[in-house]
Design a protein that fits this description.
By secondary structure, the protein is of the alpha/beta class. About 40% of the residues lie in helices and about 15% in strands. It contains 19 helices and 16 strands. The strands form 4 sheets. Strands 2-3-4-6-5-7-8-13-14-16 form a 10-stranded mixed sheet, with helices on both faces. Strands 1-15 form a two-stranded antiparallel ribbon. It has a two-stranded antiparallel ribbon with strand order 9-10. The radius of gyration is 22 Å and the shape is globular. The two termini are about 20 Å apart.
Length: about 500
């Protein structure tokens, strides 16, 4: 789940071979509702097709080679599912072919989160990311959701405008700074409305979940196999709510709680990053740390950097200054992955010495900023989806009244999370969804993964979602960083792959 205007980190992690015992019950084993291991699913749509959507479910995409053992295709879906004969949009998908062609189970659909992250890029890394059981038994399909990447995209700002938005003061403390942030958000809303038009009203998660069922029908799987991370858990849970009977095996890793408000989400995420920063500081202090010999000293240096950069931006790459907002993004990015903590230490040291280059480099990695500009539209898509999904603050006065509570909850990150909501105040599309529990009655067992010190999707969200789902089962990873399956935890790897490949669901919630 993205922090402010930035992106979820999907890193190529080493996945170790396992050893966590799991008490299990067989799922989908020869019950006639989902293909068992070794079966080949039929070609073409399977099961009932929603009325009026036949041409979409029955389309035959032209899958063309786009890499080693990979195929890509463009798929057509309706812009508005209530008007299936109206305008259509495109989804771009990438398929990594199962290595065991004769024994493949079906298709595993994957989503890396965001919102706004590219599923195609995620799939392109499958051979480095996923365990061999998944690579052998599933065609793995990642797609760019509607509004994202190479699918029909939401495009709003040029590079210079997006640079200014991302670097804008995220903790305004004067009327002039508040007015400037409000002006930028209004410009974003106006420009998006002009350039994206009616697409803006249809990039919400419910429409994206309906797209998944079209994809499932096209590949011919009777039920959905799905692995979603971070925001991808909200997308998967929404699918389960809409198509409970079509759920086969679903893993939701690093869950977003669908029952909480945008304000609750922002405050919990702010606390989550504070908790992760505490873990970094404690770890740093226990070794030869350049920032101090105690957790308190390390955090004091981070606080000093944040405060100093508010009034005096740091020099960056010779072209851009490193504002306080970019400092925050540079601090947040390495908290997603413990392996990056040494980079964080060095960046803070450099920043305090007056050099912001390392911080800017990490902020750029986080926001997909290349030397030539932004590599995708993830930042704009994130705002478009978030503002479409959940009601947020409706006025500057309402937002400002809650700033003290956010600062009290998270002294370092609270202001930045609450002020990120200013974009939705002026957004031209109002959300039609409201926060609510997702129960998905009738769905087969759904596995929810949570990491105890996850900075971006606090562990409590995974606990909540697992308990909301009538068929939810919780797998807990005790550790740091964002999400669990790609963390290198052998126990989690074994549980997930046994469930997806063999249908073995833990009999009770388990801890890894």
């Amino acid at each position: 789940m993205r922090f402010r205007r930035s992106t979820v980190l999907v890193a190529a992690l080493a996945v170790l071979a396992s050893g966590c015992g799991v008490a299990s019950r067989a799922q989908d084993a020869g019950d006639g509702t989902a293909p068992s291991v070794g079966s080949n699913p039929p070609s073409g749509p399977v099961g009932p097709i929603p009325a009026g959507l036949e041409k979409f479910y029955q389309q035959r995409p032209d899958w063309e080679r786009c890499g080693a053992n990979q195929q890509c295709a463009t798929i057509e879906v309706p812009l508005d599912y209530t008007k299936p004969t109206g305008r259509t949009i495109e989804l771009r998908a990438r398929k990594v072919l199962a290595r065991d062609r004769g024994g493949r189970i079906g298709t595993l659909f994957i989503n890396p989160g965001g919102p706004g992250a590219s599923g195609q890029s995620f799939a392109a890394q499958a051979s480095m990311l996923f365990g061999s059981p998944l690579l052998r038994k599933f065609d793995i399909v990642g797609w760019d959701p509607r509004g994202v990447g190479e699918s029909t995209p939401v495009r709003c700002l040029d590079t210079e405008q997006l640079d200014a938005l991302i670097a804008a003061d995220g903790s305004p403390d004067t009327p002039a700074e508040v007015a400037d942030l409000d002006k930028q958000s209004k410009n974003l809303a106006t420009t998006c409305e002009q350039r994206a038009g009616e697409l803006l009203a249809h990039v919400n998660t419910k429409d994206a979940a309906r797209d998944i069922d079209v994809l499932r029908g096209i590949v011919g799987d009777p039920q959905l196999y799905y692995l979603g991370m971070s925001y991808g858990t909200y997308l998967g849970a929404t699918y389960a709510e809409l198509f409970a009977k079509n759920v086969g095996r679903m893993v939701l890793d690093g869950a977003v709680d669908p029952a909480i408000t945008s304000e609750q989400l922002g405050m919990a995420q702010a606390k989550g990053f504070d908790k992760a920063l505490d873990a970094f500081a404690e770890d740093c202090a226990q070794r030869s740390c350049k920032l101090g010999s105690s957790k308190t000293e390390v955090l004091a240096k981070v606080d000093q950097l944040i405060k100093l950069s508010d009034a005096n931006p740091l020099p960056g790459d010779g072209r851009r200054e490193v504002t306080q907002a970019l400092v925050i993004l540079g601090l947040v990015y390495p908290l997603y992955l413990k392996d990056y903590w040494p980079r964080l230490e060095d960046a803070v040291v450099d920043g305090l010495a007056g050099n912001g280059a390392r911080l800017l480099a990490m902020a750029d990695e986080y926001t997909d900023r290349k030397p030539s500009g932004y590599s995708d539209n993830a930042n704009e898509a994130q705002i478009a989806v978030n503002c479409s999904d959940r009601p947020d603050f409706t006025s500057l006065a309402q937002l400002q009244s809650r700033v003290p509570a956010f600062k009290a909850a998270s002294p370092r990150f609270g202001e930045f999370l609450i002020w990120s909501s200013v974009a939705c105040i002026n957004w031209p599309v109002k959300p039609t969804n409201t926060p609510h529990q997702i129960k998905a009655p009738g769905a087969k067992p759904i596995m929810v993964l949570g990491t105890t010190r996850d900075p971006a999707t606090p562990y409590e969200w995974s606990v909540s979602l697992a308990h909301q789902l009538e068929s939810g089962v919780l797998v807990t990873r005790d550790g740091d960083g964002h999400t669990a399956y790609l963390s290198g935890n052998a126990c989690v790897k074994n549980v997930v792959e046994s469930y997806l490949v063999q249908g073995n669901t833990p009999a009770t919630d388990i801890k890894c």
